Amino acid sequence: MPDFPQAFPAVAEPGAAVPQPLIPAAAEGASAAKASEPPAMGDAVLALAPAAGAAAMAGLTSEGALDDGPAAGEPSGSSRKRPKPGERRVQILQTLAAMLQEPGADRITTAALAAKLSVSEAALYRHFASKAQMFEGLIEFIEQSIFTLIHQITAREDDPALQARRIVFMLLQFGEKNPGMARVMVGDALVFENERLSARMNQFFDKVESQLRQCLRAAAEHAGSQTPTVDANGRASALTALAVGRLQRYTRSGFKRSPTEQIELALGLLT
Asked: How far is it, in rounded angstroms, from Cα 146 to Cα 77?
């Protein structure tokens, strides 16, 4: 079963080279995956471990018939290129993410998604049991991407305060380079979908805040604070709210207001 293209933005510091979008066009996926290598902290991309890529596909249906058949209105005898095993699933999630960043994408129907892919709606359900499961595929991908990068940051950076800054900056840059994913992260794309999807994204940010809390408690203890837990709780909450707010402003401005604008100053005030 193939993974998503294994290239994710791992930000070293504000001003680092801007990474390429997380999910490239299908034709570019192979070259993007091939080019990514485990870098030093200053590099802009990270090769995700195979296990994470496999987990990103969790919840998908088992391998089934791969001949999606003709799209609506297409002659039944027409010749169609047969996708490789698992390739159609990746294409579906890539297309869904791309459609989420288009103007007016308040609610994406399976009919519109199928039309974009030039397949029938029935073909979509050969690979996913429901539209909610498609969104779960995107959420799983976000989780695996972000938490793998957080692990890289905490493993390579000794200063806990700087760890917290880089985690927030990486989270914002991830959303900026993947606008469709950003709409999932802040819940705008999930308003009309199953409630469990919004609950899962809330849990995602709870986990991010917990990681920030650990970093900031260590920083407070190192600075000699008499109340390191209280300090860490307050700052982690503020940083998480900053990240969510910046991503919301980015999506609701039509992706015009960068979530990372003047972020160095904001992070300096909160850490």
From this structure: 44
Reading phi first (left if > 0) and then psi (alpha if -120 to 50, else beta), residue 136 is in alpha
pLDDT tens figures, 23-81: 443 334 333 333 332 222 223 333 333 333 333 333 333 333 334 554 444 454 445 56
The CATH architecture that domain 134-270 belongs to is: Orthogonal Bundle (1.10)
pTM (2 decimals)? 0.72
Per-residue pLDDT tens digits for 211-222: 999 999 999 999
Contact 255, 101 (CB under 8 A): yes
- The rounded distance, in Å, linking the Cα atoms of 230 and 172 is 25
Contacts of 222 (CB under 8 A, 6+ apart): 160
